[in-house]
Amino acid sequence: MTTNTSNPSPIAFPAARFIKEIGRGKHGARSMTRDDAHDLYQAMLDGRVSDLELGGILLAMRIKGESVQEIAGFLDAAEASFAPLSAPPGAYAPIVIPSYNGARKMANLVPLLAMLLAREGVPVLVHGVAHDVGRVASAEVFAQLGVTAAQDHADVEEALAQGHVGFITIDALAPKLAHMLSLRRILGVRNSTHTLVKIMQPFAGPALRLVSYTHPEYLEMLAEFFTTEALHARGDAFLMRGTEGETVANANKAQQIDWLHGGLRTMLVPKQTVVQELPSLPGERDAATTAAWIARVLAGDVAVPESIAEQVAQCLLVSRTLQSRQRVSDPVE
């Protein structure tokens, strides 16, 4: 057998000492330091952890839950696994909208939010999955609206430069993270990567991240994460309970939106039981019906749902503020 010395196998990463600490159950496990979490997740992304150990790690973290320092270390490794994007110059900082859940019961209005922002001149990046079994993914609605998924980083940067919504699948944006997400099909449960893709910052410069949570325990953990010093240096974040897991305001009732900025947490939009007047929404949740309804909203034939209009207004205000703040902090050439 001939050995291929030009492409050596990656050096195995011994993970047993980490599993010993995080694998003691929800109440007995101990959390890793940020540096240890970074090293472990980097090895996982690079394929240096055996399948047996990898499965043990993912399930142990699923049971234990991530600490702020563990999420920080994981995210350091995750964001270093792909090249950052560049945003076009302008009055607004880019806005990042992750879309990994899709719609199961309601129409998926993430594309509406993104396109409303883009037509105001905001560079809007939506990243997510191409399909999700049993759900209507944003990618499918975008396709009906004529917004095709970017093939690579240069492609999505060109869309942003042209003033269009930039949509890219996680497979094209960050292939190593896409592989980690795909392990759900084998294990049957989500893993820490599903949280990481919803909070990561794909741009080299500051951006406003729209972040949603589905389980109440994640609210305080993520709020602490985004207000911890040295973790908010690359932009601000909006935090809200997801609409079926997506970070678009519920058209029937406004969720609370918190603004995490400079170590502070400010409530921008209070929670509402129901909106004052129920909006006219798509009759079905399929991609074609949703896209046709969004086109009518963009044309002015149907009113923008009140809660989404408020979300857009807050995004515009903070995105402009963030960009102005960055210009002040940039050195004069």
Structural features, described:
With 333 residues, the protein is an alpha/beta fold. The chain has helices at residues 16-22, 25-28, 34-45, 51-64, 68-80, 110-118, 138-144, 153-161, 170-173, 175-182, 184-187, 192-199, 216-227, 287-298, 306-329; strands spanning 95-99, 124-128, 166-169, 207-213, 235-241, 257-261, 264-269. 44% of the residues lie in helices and 12% in strands. It is globular, with a radius of gyration of 20 Å.
List the helices and strands and how they pair.
Elements: H1 16-22, H2 25-28, H3 34-45, H4 51-64, H5 68-80, E1 95-99, H6 110-118, E2 124-128, H7 138-144, H8 153-161, E3 166-169, H9 170-173, H10 175-182, H11 184-187, H12 192-199, E4 207-213, H13 216-227, E5 235-241, E6 257-261, E7 264-269, H14 287-298, H15 306-329
Parallel strand pairs: 1-2, 1-4, 2-3, 4-5
Antiparallel strand pairs: 5-6, 6-7
Helix pairs in contact: 1-4, 3-5, 5-13, 6-14, 7-14
Q: Element order, helices and strands?
A: HHHHHEHEHHEHHHHEHEEEHH
Treating each run of at least 4 consecutive H or I residues as one helix, how many helices?
A: 15
CATH uppermost class of the largest domain: Alpha Beta
Helicity, as a percent range: 40-55%
- Radius of gyration, taken over Cα atoms and rounded to an integer in Å: 20 Å
- CA-CA gap between termini: 59 Å
CATH-assigned homologous superfamily of the largest domain:
Nucleoside phosphorylase/phosphoribosyltransferase catalytic domain
CATH architecture of the largest domain: 3-Layer(aba) Sandwich
What is the tally of beta strands? 7
- Per the principal axes of the C-alpha atoms, what is the gross shape? globular
What is the fold named in CATH at topology level of the largest domain? Pyrimidine Nucleoside Phosphorylase, Chain A, domain 2
Q: Classify the beta-strand content into a percent band.
A: 5-15%
Q: Domains counted in the coordinates: how many?
A: 2
